Automatic annotation (TrEMBL):
It holds the Pfam family Sigma70_r4_2. Coiled coil: none annotated. It comes from Streptomyces peucetius. Residues 12-74 form the RNA polymerase sigma-70 region domain. Interacts transiently with the RNA polymerase catalytic core formed by RpoA, RpoB, RpoC and RpoZ (2 alpha, 1 beta, 1 beta' and 1 omega subunit) to form the RNA polymerase holoenzyme that can initiate transcription. The keyword Transcription applies. Residues 76-99 are annotated as: Disordered. Keywords: Sigma factor, Transcription, Transcription regulation. Residues 111-161 form the RNA polymerase sigma factor 70 region 4 type domain. Belongs to the sigma-70 factor family. ECF subfamily. This is Sigma-70 family RNA polymerase sigma factor.
């Protein structure tokens, strides 16, 4: 086997891990693939003969590429994707496989991707590499031109955001009850189970959606279990990119194709477990004010 063939084989061994790093850094399958491909182009032109830890070196390369992509994204001040929740959807319009995008988002955690998208590039890199891939701060620091101590502080700051550092969560018992209800709502919506949805909704449930959801000249108000359930069925395609999260301290849903928050749902849940109210938030100013965090293990 010649040297180039050996390098190709060695790179392929690390491709899955590199893609995992890039996806968590960028939140997009297509961008992650671009970052991995750029990593290969760089490694194929480099002299790697003296590299003792090739896996670590590849992680550094792909991380720096992702960091540059995040900085370019930030400098362009890209707006979140415009997603109309009630309409059928085919998935992201970036050429990536919608099913793969949805599966990855679900496996990583939609709430985590949403919070990561709010972090500064250096914070995101420090948190992802250290907390998710156990890269030591001694290696992270040089990537972001900071000391290991500064890198540790960035990761700590990001960790507080991920876990929810501002909004006070509801008591554990109430969170557990609400979580069961919201997860059942998401499962029924994803599965198109109209009967299950009706069983979760109070007969007099009220859904309120802001003007950006449809869009419409005025906010939308829907009364009654059957009309609300029909609206949820219309959003079944978008439910693939939706996950349970802490939203302002209580259990809600966040929708995030390509890892960018586009819609949030909050729920009012009665003592008997029925859903009495749903608020659908899509206006960018309102989304920016929400405190979104990961929900711990059940």
């Amino acid at each position: 086997m010649d040297e180039n063939a050996a390098l190709i084989d060695r790179f392929e061994e690390d491709r899955g891990r590199l893609r995992a790093v890039a996806y968590r850094m960028l939140g997009s399958v297509s961008e992650a693939e671009d970052a991995v491909q750029e990593t290969w182009l760089r490694v194929s032109r480099a002299d790697t003969g003296s590299v003792e830890n090739l896996s670590g070196w590849l992680t550094t390369v792909v991380s720096r590429i992702c960091l540059n992509m995040l900085r370019k994204r930030e400098s362009r001040r890209e707006e979140p994707l415009e997603v109309r929740a009630p309409q059928p959807a085919t998935g992201p319009e970036d050429g990536s496989d919608p099913e793969q995008e949805a599966l990855l988002a679900d496996s990583v955690g939609v709430a985590l991707l949403v919070v990561l998208d709010t972090l500064a590039p250096a914070e995101r890199l420090a948190f992802v590499l250290h907390d998710l891939f156990a890269v030591p701060f001694d290696e992270i620091g040089p990537m972001i031109e900071r000391s290991p101590t500064a890198a540790r502080q960035l990761a700590s700051r990001a960790r507080r955001r991920v876990k929810g550092g501002a909004a006070a969560p509801a008591p554990d018992a109430d969170l557990a009850r609400r979580r069961r209800v919201v997860e059942a709502f998401l499962t029924a919506t994803r599965g198109g189970d109209f009967t299950a949805l009706l069983s979760l909704l109070h007969p007099d449930v009220v859904l309120r959606a802001d003007k950006a959801v449809v869009p419409s000249p005025e906010p939308i108000v829907v009364h009654g279990a059957r009309p609300v359930a029909k609206g949820a069925m219309a959003a079944m395609g978008r439910a693939r990119y939706t996950g349970v999260a802490l939203v302002d301290g209580t259990v809600g849903l966040v929708m995030a194709p390509q890892g960018r928050l586009s819609v949030a749902l909050t729920f009012a849940v009665a003592a008997d477990g029925s859903i009495t109210g749903i608020e659908v938030i899509a206006e960018r100013e309102r989304l920016a004010e929400l405190e979104v965090a990961e929900l711990g293990d059940a």
